[in-house]
Amino acid sequence: MADRITRRLFSGHSTVILEVAQEDLPIPAELVPQFVGAIDGSTITVSQEASGEYLFTVTHRWLREPMLRVLWWDHDGAMRYLMNEQFFLLPAKQRKGYGIRSVALELYTARACGVASVSCEAAGGPGRERVGYYTWPLFGFDADLTEADIAALPADMAHCRSLNQLMLCPGGADHWRRNGHGVYVIFDLAPDSGCWDILNAYMEREGVEL
């Protein structure tokens, strides 16, 4: 059963503006708000680029800038990929559990719609305004560690070769918070992906239920 915040703010009640024919939309129109993790009351504009990608532009009074999602395919049309290009809540709306619910809803809906992975630039670093470098890995998004990252690991984490592995280590998340950096990250939506283990554990700790 969905938790109180999810029921109140992530029930799918947003305005969807289609700039493409509904029959050409690659996902069910009624799932668009969940597909992009929209906060209720958002306005979502769906358009198609000349190169074929679908662009979802989400505006809401709690967002510092429009939230952008891009959906595209392999050249053979066999696999779908989703990229999160922008997601920045106003400072007053941060640390309230809205971000994790938005992302989790997006991930679960994207998997149900046949998307293979979701990616984004996890921007920022210690002491900077943007903290995506730390937050996205907490949500299960993964990337290989660089040689410099591995060299900086304490002895009890020296076996880690990816952000997923580091997040699973006691103290690993805190180490990355203090020593991490911006990185391109991917959430593998395959049912047996280790990304889900990290996401679901985080949701359980924070009392998030969709």
Structure description:
This protein is α/β, with parallel strands linked by helices. The chain has two domains: 1-113, no CATH class; 125-181 and 191-210, no CATH class. Helix content is 30%, strand content 21%. The chain has a seven-stranded mixed sheet. Strand 4 and strand 5 (80-86) form a beta hairpin. The chain is globular and about 55 Å long.
Overview in brief:
The chain has 210 residues and is of the alpha/beta class.
Write the topology of this structure.
Elements: H1 4-9, E1 15-18, H2 32-35, E2 43-48, E3 54-59, E4 67-73, E5 80-86, H3 98-112, E6 115-122, H4 132-138, H5 147-151, H6 163-168, H7 172-179, E7 183-188, H8 194-206
Parallel strand pairs: 1-2, 5-6
Antiparallel strand pairs: 2-3, 3-4, 4-5, 6-7
Essential attributes:
210 residues; alpha/beta; 2 domains; globular
Number of individual domains? 2
Shape: globular
Unreliable sequence segments:
none
User: Strands of the biggest beta sheet: in what spatial order?
Assistant: 1-2-3-4-5-6-7
Label the structural class. Answer: alpha/beta
Strand content: 15-25%
Q: Report the sheet with the most strands, covering strand number, pairing sense and barrel closure.
A: 7 strands, mixed
Listing every helix as H and every strand as E from the N terminus to the C terminus, the arrangement reads HEHEEEEHEHHHHEH
Q: Helix tally?
A: 8
Give the total of beta strands.
7
Computed over alpha carbons, the radius of gyration is 17 Å
Helix content: 25-40%
First CA to last CA: what distance?
A: 7 Å
What's the mean pLDDT score?
Answer: 96
